[in-house]
Structures are given as structure tokens and as C-alpha cells.
TrEMBL record:
Name of the protein in question: Flavodoxin, putative
Amino acid sequence: MSGSVLYFSYTGNSKKIAKTLAKEVKAKLIEVKPVLELPYVFWLSLSFFPLLGFPVKDVEVKDYRVAVCFPKWTFNCPPITELLKRGVFRGKKVFLFISYAGWREKEYADFYEKLFESFGAKVQLVELVKRDELKSSQIVRFKNLWML
Ligand SMILES: Cc1cc2nc3c(=O)[nH]c(=O)nc-3n(C[C@H](O)[C@H](O)[C@H](O)COP(=O)(O)O)c2cc1C
């Protein structure tokens, strides 16, 4: 079954979620890598500016269906915003999985849902995952929508 699971992960939680999802639906795993490895304080500073991108290595997303896993970072996750601005998700069916620790995650999820839509993606699902604690109900929901 064709499809991709794309992820950006700084401390490994989104990566773990992405690997589980990719295995469940037999999708390709694609990692988003910033061109520079920045220390925490730099990422934290950049995460305060909504809509700010950050250069990432080129990724090729050929599939129509794409799950996108990334962390909740203050108001912005620049590597993911960068891909949105590049039009990587335009016209695609996307399934968002956002890993968070516990501060204002719902607002962030709503913000990114609208942002993906505004950059031409068709958002099918938005799931919030505490750290890497993906629930079986979330996997079931994902698989059901992925098959449609
Ligand atoms: C720069 C930065 C900003 C963060 N901001 C938030 C936040 O606003 N709210 C929150 O719940 N967690 C925040 N976190 C915690 C991450 O969302 C959480 O640890 C997540 O599971 C990390 O995913 P990852 O391991 O894929 O990078 C932040 C982490 C970093 C590094």
C-alpha cells in the first residue's frame, strides 16, 4: 500500500510514533533533517515565531497520503513550517500526529491544522500524543481513515 510517514523529531518521540504508524500501514518512513543541528536554546527561541521556517535537507514526498509526525514547540516547529512553505504537502491527504509534553497542545494542533489547510493540504486527522504514548484507539482511527 503506498503512502509515506514523514517525521521531524528532536528527542525521539515523534520518531517512535512515526515508526509505529509506518509499520501499521506499511508506509515509507521519511525523516526531515535540518541543515544544521542546533542546540535546545536556539530551537526554543525560533519556536516563538509562528510561520518561521528553518532550512532542511530536501525531502521527496511522492505519495498522495502522508502522515506527518512532529513535536509541539511553543508556537512553531520551524522544520515543518519550512516544508509547508515549500509546498511539499500541497494537494495531499495528510494525517497529523503531534507529540507534546503538556502545555497548550490543543491550540497548537488547531493552528497547524489550519496552516496545513492554508498551504493546500487536505487534513484527514489530527492526533495529539503525550510524549510517545500513542494509544491503540489512535492507531485504529488512523488506519481506518488511511484506508479510505
Ligand atoms: C524547543 C522546544 C519547545 C517545546 N515547547 C513545548 C510546548 O510549548 N508545549 C509542550 O507541551 N511541550 C513542549 N516541548 C516538549 C515537546 O513537545 C515534547 O517533549 C515532545 O514529545 C518532543 O518530541 P520529539 O522527541 O519528537 O522532539 C518543547 C520541546 C522543545 C525542544
